Inverse folding.
């Protein structure tokens, strides 16, 4: 019986059945690897012909530096459209969503002044008209009134930038505008919008229930004065695959019973001079625009055939366009796309051809695909061919492989392997046919390894395998502990591994981590362990001397010196007579050290104000170009956070760099963080906790409306001041520091408080902060976290998959209204969770009223 179970045929059949099950049910592991092979083939499918139909006008860093901070006056946008139209561009795709009127304080003041002057002149003219002597001056007063009102009206017209942009759109009937949906089915009650920009001809409306078209809700559209003058409106939504990579365009989104075309489809329609009424859609099959036919799958997606990495399409600076520095021939008869490219405001995506791929270039690739009918599709015969290849490979490893000699079996396996890979790659590159090759290839490789190595793994090499497994296990555990910051345990595991070149590198990186934590003696111990086999490895001999000197009281870093370590303190022993500074701030003393750097008490000598100065630590092994980009993003994020003005958000006064030390100057707070009140014996009164969370929710609602997400809400970042007020600290810092993390295994944020989408590495929005606030509320009320695990892996699994414990299990006296709020805050699906902090605050206020009325 045992021989039958372990026979090659049985093993081969079991492997084949497992792969077939994975194929039919599209198991995540297999699909994710298949998508990686798709990405590899996409890089090989870049056409060689030049791109002539499309040009991109970029709102880039250079334009912002020369023109001023974004957003710009809409007259600049109008000027760009006029210039591009003058250069005879055929279609202009303006990928900027103007949903609110431009705020122009001067315009409001002139309107107010016009009303006041009109009334004042009328009041003065009444006694003149009633007086016979003065009545002859009445025409002069009327003339004065008319002239004044006319001048003010003319000024009002000059300052009304929205009207100027609307007039420009009206004069140039070739501009396409964007709109945006929240992805997910509408629950009803929403009014249909922009019906004139929807596809009316549906060839098979009765089949709508068979296909899973992307559905949208809560449409965000441009102002009416813009939509009425534009040539069309198209959605700019992108829906990445499960691994976060954008591989497909969504040519149409269904909202209510209407079908809304994408931004790219609308531009192609305008380019081909096809009225939207003539566009046809056949659900699950295709969209027809004149002679152009767009193939779509059952989910309404069009796979994008990329023409190259970011920057493939010709780019022109917005500043150069409005100053007419671009050759008009470069834009003549072309599709011109205007979009964001500047750091901090650009819509960046992950694509098969690389990260940080601008959204405007996604649109360009989609347009180019449609115009050239260059598509990637899943042919009708693909699934049959994939199934047949799995069955053939299964028969080979089950019956033939064990009967072939070792060399001949390896040769046949290699031929099959390269045949599968070669055929799948050839059809993909040459014809755009996507046939999945990972399933049969995996079965071939894994089956070959299992069948040919079965005896080796079971008998002769069992001991060696156990030892090798133990070494690899210790290495992986060490890396895991290092990634979690448990450096001592990591060193313990690494010491059990033989010292090869890879191990020396791992230990060297571990020693650097000890240095970053200022554990100099432990770092020296790691270096000494390396020296047992290599005394000259990366100059560690001299490094040990420096570390021991630092452990004895010396410091790294200086103020005013030639070089300064980003981790060193700026306060040096023996320098008491010279007050150190950072920028214009005088350093009084060191307040403490955190994961991101050192916090000092500083004084602004200009206004004699005490501030807290937090230095930011960036990874030292980042290349110069990447570091420059990180620091530019740091200052942009600090500027955005500094614009927040809310009583429950810490104020940021300044950000700068001095001797390679980046810092933020912020409000000096006198209090403690709420971490102190998360233990069961130090819990705050229930009403007090609710009041604090209401204030935090209101603060987050305000920040989210400004487009700023915290990303690291936890009790340690919520300060309770001595006067009883609450402040949220470290806005945007989590995102700033994440840009400089390069080491494998680094965990950003605080896992216990992170949202499921944050753990999955997806693009997050304000709803992630609301999930974290829900964890804080749960902990402050019960004295325990909703998600706890024996290991980091167990904790992350709970957050992503398991429902939190009922808080009443921790405190049976908790009111039902609080439990209901917590449950909604901790929903795994962001669309089911609270959408705004203001909603949480409103529900908690009602709950607070209920609690008080019950107590009274």
């Amino acid at each position: 019986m045992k021989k039958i179970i372990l026979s090659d045929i049985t093993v081969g059949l079991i492997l084949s059945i497992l792969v077939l099950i994975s194929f039919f049910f599209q198991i995540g592991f297999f699909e994710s690897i298949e998508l990686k092979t798709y990405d590899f083939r996409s890089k090989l499918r870049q056409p060689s012909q030049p791109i002539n139909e499309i040009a991109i006008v970029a709102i880039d860093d250079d334009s912002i530096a020369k023109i001023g901070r974004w957003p710009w006056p809409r007259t600049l946008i109008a000027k760009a459209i006029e210039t591009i139209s003058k250069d005879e561009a055929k279609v202009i795709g303006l990928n900027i969503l103007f949903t609110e009127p431009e705020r122009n304080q001067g315009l409001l003041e002139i309107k107010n002044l016009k009303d006041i002057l009109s009334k004042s002149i009328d009041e003065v003219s009444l006694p003149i008209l009633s007086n016979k002597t003065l009545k002859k001056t009445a025409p002069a007063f009327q003339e004065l009134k008319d002239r004044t009102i006319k001048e003010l009206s003319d000024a009002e017209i000059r300052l009304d930038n929205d009207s100027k942009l609307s007039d420009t759109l009206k004069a140039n009937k070739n501009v396409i505008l964007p709109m945006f949906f929240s992805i997910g089915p509408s629950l009803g009650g929403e009014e249909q919008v922009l019906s004139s920009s929807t596809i009316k001809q549906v060839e098979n409306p009765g089949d709508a229930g068979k296909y899973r078209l992307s559905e949208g809700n809560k449409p965000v559209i441009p102002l009416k004065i813009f939509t009425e003058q534009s040539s069309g409106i198209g959605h700019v939504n992108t829906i990445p695959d499960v691994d976060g990579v954008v591989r497909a365009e969504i040519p149409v989104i269904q909202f209510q019973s209407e079908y809304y075309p994408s931004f790219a489809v609308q531009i192609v329609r305008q380019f081909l001079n096809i009225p939207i009424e003539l566009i046809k859609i056949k659900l699950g099959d295709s969209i027809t625009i004149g002679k152009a036919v767009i193939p779509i799958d059952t989910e309404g997606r069009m796979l994008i055939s990329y023409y190259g990495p970011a920057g493939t399409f010709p780019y022109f600076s917005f500043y150069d366009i409005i100053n007419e520095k671009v050759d008009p021939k470069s834009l003549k008869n072309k599709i011109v796309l205007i979009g964001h490219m500047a750091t901090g405001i650009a819509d960046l995506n992950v694509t098969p051809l690389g990260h940080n791929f601008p959204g405007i270039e996604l649109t360009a690739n989609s347009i180019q695909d449609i115009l050239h009918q260059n598509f990637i599709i899943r042919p009708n015969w693909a699934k049959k061919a994939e199934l047949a290849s799995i069955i053939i490979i299964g028969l080979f490893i089950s019956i033939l492989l064990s009967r072939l000699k070792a060399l001949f079996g390896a040769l046949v396996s290699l031929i099959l392997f390269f045949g599968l890979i070669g055929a799948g790659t050839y059809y993909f590159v040459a014809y755009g046919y996507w046939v999945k090759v990972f399933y049969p290839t995996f079965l071939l490789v894994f089956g070959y390894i299992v069948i040919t190595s079965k005896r080796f793994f079971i008998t002769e090499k069992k001991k060696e395998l156990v030892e090798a497994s133990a070494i690899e296990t210790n290495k992986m555990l060490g890396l895991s502990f290092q990634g979690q910051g448990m450096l001592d345990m990591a060193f313990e595991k690494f010491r059990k591994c033989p010292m090869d070149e890879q191990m020396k590198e791992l230990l060297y990186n571990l020693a650097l981590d000890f240095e970053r934590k200022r554990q100099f003696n432990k770092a020296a111990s790691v270096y000494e362990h390396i020296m047992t086999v290599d005394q000259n490895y990366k100059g560690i001999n001299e490094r040990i001397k420096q570390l021991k000197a630092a452990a004895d009281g010396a410091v790294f870093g200086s103020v005013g010196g030639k070089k300064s370590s980003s981790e060193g303190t700026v306060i040096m022993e023996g320098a008491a007579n010279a007050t150190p500074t950072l920028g214009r701030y005088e350093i009084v003393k060191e307040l403490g050290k955190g994961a991101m750097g050192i916090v000092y008490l500083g004084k602004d000598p200009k206004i004699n104000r005490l501030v807290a100065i937090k230095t930011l630590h960036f990874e030292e092994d980042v290349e110069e170009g990447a570091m420059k980009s990180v620091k530019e993003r740091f200052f942009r994020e600090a500027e955005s956070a500094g614009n927040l003005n809310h009583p429950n958000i810490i104020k940021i006064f300044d950000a700068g760099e001095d001797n390679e030390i980046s810092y933020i100057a912020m409000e000096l707070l006198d209090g403690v963080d709420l971490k102190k009140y998360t233990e069961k014996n130090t819990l705050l009164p229930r009403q007090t906790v609710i009041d604090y969370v209401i204030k935090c929710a209101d603060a987050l609602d305000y920040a989210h409306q400004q487009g700023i997400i915290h990303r690291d809400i936890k009790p340690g970042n919520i300060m309770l001041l001595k006067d009883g007020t609450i402040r949220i600290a470290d806005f945007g810092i989590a995102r700033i520091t994440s840009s400089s993390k390069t080491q494998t295994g680094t965990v950003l944020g605080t896992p216990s408080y992170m949202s499921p989408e944050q753990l999955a590495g997806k693009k997050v929005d304000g709803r992630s902060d609301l999930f974290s606030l829900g964890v804080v509320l749960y902990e402050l009320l019960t004295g325990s976290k909703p998600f706890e695990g024996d290991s980091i892996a167990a904790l992350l699994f709970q957050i992503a998959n398991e429902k939190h414990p009922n808080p009443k299990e921790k405190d049976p006296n908790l009111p039902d209204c609080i439990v209901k709020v917590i449950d909604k805050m901790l929903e795994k699906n962001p669309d089911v969770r609270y959408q705004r902090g203001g909603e949480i605050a409103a529900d908690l206020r009602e709950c607070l009223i209920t609690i008080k009325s019950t107590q009274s």
In short: The CA atoms of residues 78 and 329 lie 20 Å apart. The chain has 28 helices and 26 strands.
